[in-house]
Design goal:
- Residues 84-160 form the Lipoyl-binding domain.
- Helix content is 12%, strand content 38%.
- By secondary structure, the chain is mainly β.
- It folds into two domains: 3-62, no CATH class; 80-159, OB fold (Dihydrolipoamide Acetyltransferase, E2P) (Beta Barrel).
- The strands form three sheets. A four-stranded antiparallel β-sheet has the order 1-2-3-4, with helices on one face. A four-stranded antiparallel β-sheet has the order 5-12-10-7, with no helix packed on it. A four-stranded antiparallel β-sheet has the order 9-8-6-11, with no helix packed on it.
- The protein is elongated and about 60 Å long.
Length: 160
């Protein structure tokens, strides 16, 4: 790879980051093909706890990390996934707090849930997957917003 192409790719990534901020987006993903077996895959995100990755086919290269999430209250574990009442995502997808746009959320903070009650839906590959409560309790925190992408193992809610 030439230095000028590297500089052009860096400028492209910076432009994507500016586009993300200017349009209040949470994530943008782009693939640039340079030729056979030569491409640039870029994903710029504000929501991931993992560093963003730039991938030149076939070898990945790390990039700058996204902005840090807001600090958690001092009376809870720093990582919500480590909380004993954490409900984590069983898959990668898009989380929805209601059955359809404009409908009431399945649960809200303070709601009492029984084991098996639907907490939310995660859409994965055009399939709507209902996420059941793993135990009975009270919803203490909802850690995601409606329509946000989630990763496998990401904390979704705290139920105590």
């Amino acid at each position: 790879m030439t230095q000028s192409r590297n500089d052009a790719d860096v400028a492209f990534i910076k432009a994507l980051a500016e586009l993300l901020n200017e349009n209040d987006l949470s994530e943008v993903s782009v693939k640039r093909d340079y030729g056979e077996n030569d491409s640039l895959n870029v994903k710029v995100s504000k929501i991931s706890a993992q560093p963003a990755q730039i991938q030149y086919a076939p070898a990945p290269v790390a990039a700058a990390a996204p902005s840090a999430p807001a600090a958690a209250p001092s009376d809870t574990p720093a990582d919500p996934a480590q909380h004993p009442g954490a409900v984590t995502s069983p898959m990668v997808g898009t989380a929805y707090l209601a059955a359809e746009p404009g409908a009431a959320n399945f649960v809200s903070i303070g709601a009492q849930v029984s084991e098996g009650d639907t907490l939310m839906i995660i859409e994965a590959m055009k399939t709507m997957n209902h996420i059941p409560a793993p135990r009975a309790g009270t919803v203490k925190r909802i850690l995601i917003s409606d329509g946000s992408p989630v990763e496998f193992g990401a904390p979704l809610m705290i139920i105590e």
